[in-house]
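Reproducibility note. Readers wishing to regenerate the assembly model reported in the main text can use the exact inputs given here. Chain order matters: entities are listed in the order in which they were concatenated for prediction.
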Amino acid sequence: MPGVFGAIDWLFIFEQTLNEAVDLNAIVFALAAIGLNVHFGYAGLLNFGQVGFVAAGAYGMGLAVTLWGLNPFLAVVVGMIFATIFALFLGIPTLRLRADYLAIVTIASAEILRLVARSTAMRNITRGPEGLNEFVGPFRELSPFNPSVSYGFGPFTWRGNQFFTVVVGWTLIFFFVFLVWQLMRSPWGRVVKAIREDEDAARALGKSAYWYKLQALILGGIIGGFGGMMLALGNATVQPDFFVAPLTFFFWLVLILGGAGRVWAPVLGSVIFWGLITFIQNLGRQLVDAGLIPTSIMDTSQVDQIRFWIVGAALALLMIFRPQGILGSKEEMALDAH
Amino acid sequence: MILSKGLSDMGRRVVGVFLLGVMAMALFVAFAPPAFAEGEMIGTRLRYTEPNSGERVAVSGVSLTVEDTSGETIAEGVTDADGIFEVEVPGSGRYGLTIFPETLPEGVFLADPDNPTKLVEVLVGQTGRAIFQLVNENELAGLGQTSTITFRRVAQLTVEGLKFGVFLAMAAIGLSLIFGTTGLVNFAHGEMIGWGMLWAYLFNFYGFAGMFGFMEGWPAPFGDGVNLIFATLMAIVMGLGLGWAMDKFIFAPLRARGTAVISAMIVTIGLSILIRYVYLFVFGGVPRFYRDYTAQVGIKIGVIEITPKDLITGLLSVAILVLVGLFLQRARMGKAMRAVADDRDLAESSGIDVQRVIRFVWVAGSGLAALGGVFIGLSEQVSWNIGFRILLLIFAAVVLGGLGTAYGALVGALIVGVGIQVSTLWIPPELKNLGALVLLIVALLIRPQGILGKAERIG
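Running the prediction on these inputs yields the following structure tokens for the assembly.
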């Protein structure tokens, strides 16, 4: 049907798709999911509040500049410290309990963090719902790229500041993928995986399961925190209502799609996820604009809700039919509550 | 058909349920526009106290929209130099007037930011007015903290807390029992509450077939809405059906396959996101109200004041909870449920049909959740995202009382309900739910098995 396809700007859709697949969103999701991979994929921790770590990192870095006027490098350290504190806050009460208690506490804690950040009482510090907006200057001064020049090629073209974010983001991704790969081959990683497989056996061999799980929670949390810092840097803003609880499950989908417990899974999952979402949404919008989907069924704003259907359905269907995702092995995903 | 060819039997069934669910919700879609009449208006006047001069000053340039009961926006505009917004509406009836807080000028805030929509009753030939309380920075900082603690306020908040607590308990028992019998934490439980709330709305406004255009004009309950009491009963039936379908088509097959509990838990998360956003698609983002019993004047009982609908639904909930308790203590099925929750293998070996008990728990728990949803919708408002808003409170209640125990859910829900209301004596109302979540974490630190739970469950 040439009439149908003629109304759609395929080139634009494919360009958008390729761009989004490696742009800021994909970077943030990949980092958050690498952290989640340490938690769930390797240590078997059910962290349903990863968005809280992302928020902790973003707010830590932002506040360090707006509140304390620290330089960019110290601000990143503060972001890491915030993520660590959040990990301790979650881990200390729950890591001795069954896995599902951690799940409930993490989802609740991430929501606590968001509610506190947007509350009137904290307005002087976090600026309430408007969030932090004046911290990005010192970071952009570090950028070697000219803000008014475009860099890259084809669909992968960004203005200087965005290009800086993309370069830093992908550098971080490669660094953390390498770090996780090395760590999981080390004795430390083997203990963590042993605890995931059989906590009692690991304890019987004299390993403190609690301590190792706490370390894994902190490590994954800090990596998630870097996701938040990239988000803050790329958008030049930190707003509390970005960090809503369902976002955590987007990270979960990204991880499970790639295959939990595999080093490259979060990156692969994130790239596929953002490519797919962008493709479907752009196609949907154009179909609505061209009148091929009547507005009585769906209007343009509702096209944006499709991503939630995809995430929900994909998460459930993947868990039922292919829990190991693209890269994983089924045996490693045969987890159970201890 | 081609789509499902490659899938297993199990796969076809799951896909079938997804499609069925989406189709069922699609029934919400077709709404008839109300007939036009003349002379009715809706409006509001926005003013706030200027902090320096202390004078009441008009707030201009604030965006507002008017929605009819189907959620369709019928008018929009901004307040004029006198802070006045007035538009004509198609006829008498109920309308929602929504203010956009982000269009308020610097230093002006909504006193109750959680409720930007006001329900306005417009009478024939008259102008319906809504009042949005606006506050300045100083007043905002003092909200919820300034007023003194009196016996009357404590009593009022306690009663409101108990009311919300019994609704919460009804909604929470299912979650606790499903966990007790299967070990599954059902993150889609909130959507089961929303299911009841939204179906009752649908039946209340459109009857059970009114949403199909061809039955328009037929008498209730076909082409027209039914009284909320009947709508509630129908919503309960839908709730029972949902619980049955979820277990029959999704969770029973997963158990039969030996799927790990954690995988099943992630399935419930996926389901909850999918279902919630189908609600949004079909129902729209604007909160609404039931057609009957919405605008009621409170009656005074001693020092407290309560609306008749809250009193009746509260007492009804207490009666239902007592019945649930009696059922668990006396009835064969109730005893079997407790036995399975206590020790599944022992129950199975003593001849209890565990799968049948689990199916019953799903059906009954979902029915109770649906009823709880209607009561909460009647007491507050009907909205698509009730599921997520209430899920964390249910978790707090259930963990506090003891995950897996029916009575624990009851005790925990009452504590959470009263706790969040009474806490507004000291903390701003916008943070009241935070108290419940902090309580949840503190409870895990001190007594992780919950008030009524047993220690060996948690290890």
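We highlight two features of this model. Chain B touches chain A through 54 residues (CB under 8 Å). Chain B has two domains: 41-142, 151-457.
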